[in-house]
Design a protein that fits this description.
Helices cover about 55% and strands about 0% of the residues. By secondary structure, the chain is mainly alpha-helical. It has a domain of about 70 residues. The chain is rod-shaped. The chain starts with about 35 loop residues before the first helix and ends in a 9-residue tail after the last helix.
Length: about 110
């Protein structure tokens, strides 16, 4: 069996010098969701308010914000900061109930 070479087409419009390799766009920019960072910051602020002013509702809001921050976080984010925010909010709840063990009164 002999192989016959493929016929050469001189009318080929493809230009091999114009071929470029595909580069995926970097993820970032406006598509990033800042919700976990905002909730982490709010959790720390409410934790400090709960600790310093002995506000139970503020400490519970801090726990809530910490849970939202954890639920919306990505694996690439810093887990140490998130864990410290969560522990700070839990300590705010514990300390506020240790100082006054009666049930929480609504702020209004």
């Amino acid at each position: 069996m002999s192989t016959v070479p493929a016929p050469v087409n001189n009318n080929d419009v493809r230009r091999p010098n114009k071929i470029t390799r595909y580069k995926a766009q970097s993820t970032g920019g406006p598509l990033d969701d800042p919700t976990p960072e905002y909730m982490n910051l709010l959790g720390m602020v409410f934790s400090m308010c709960g600790l310093m002013m002995k506000l139970k509702w503020s400490a519970w809001v801090a726990v809530y914000c910490s849970f939202i921050s954890f639920a919306n976080s990505r694996t690439s984010e810093d887990t140490k900061q998130m864990l410290s925010s969560f522990m700070l909010s839990i300590s705010a709840v514990v300390m506020s109930y240790l100082q006054s063990p009666q049930p929480m009164m609504p702020p209004w």
